[in-house]
Amino acid sequence: MRSMIRNLRVPTCLVVALIGLSGAVLVGCTAGSGGGTAVPTQTRTAMSSTAVSSPAVSSTAVTSEPTNPPAPSGTIPVGLPNVGTLLSDRSGHLQIRLLGPTTRNVYFDESGGENITVYTHDDVPGSKEHANTYVFSPPRTAKVEESYWQGAALQYAKVSGYTLLDQGTVRFHGRPGRTGTFTDAVNLNDQYTLLALDWSSTRMYFFFAPSGAPFNNMMASFHPIG
Fold first, then answer.
1. Containing domain of residue 120, as a range?
2. What's the maximum distance between 2 C-alpha atoms anywhere in the chain?
3. How many CB atoms lie within 10 A of CB 70?
4. 105-111 mean pLDDT
């Protein structure tokens, strides 16, 4: 598996992390971020609807050091499924709500012997929430498939600029996933949660949002399509 790092900074960079056997793919970046830019082949404003005010953000302080896989298994806390702006993307195989109006981008990568289509969905302004889908062709082998989601939190910490506080494994919608809790090096009181969800040999989801209510509500609203 190749190693490709196209953008290195968040939150000024629109980040999509794809973890492989030997590295990460990061595509898409807004102005002012470091690293190169993968230009989207298709960009448009996403389907918009009425935004609903979210409840107050709740965070849980985490003091444990990062652990290497495998980590303890856990669950995604229950959130409110009707908070935020609803988007439905049949090509991206998901329906979900983000806190603000959303943008949608589609990226293609055909290097390294595999075709990857990445559907990104981000709240604007601020881009604090991301809900992204990776579609693979041909299907990944079981070993490659596992490496993508198992290494997600550690690889994301290496390239994002966030500090990884802890990580774990979960089962969500009956599928395995890797979670990570991060803090912002600039705003140490801000915490974020990542979920890399392995859906199948041809699909993986990547979710990122402020910890607590924003992340829990976003995940409660998630529905796979197709």
1. 17-224
2. 46
3. 10
4. 90
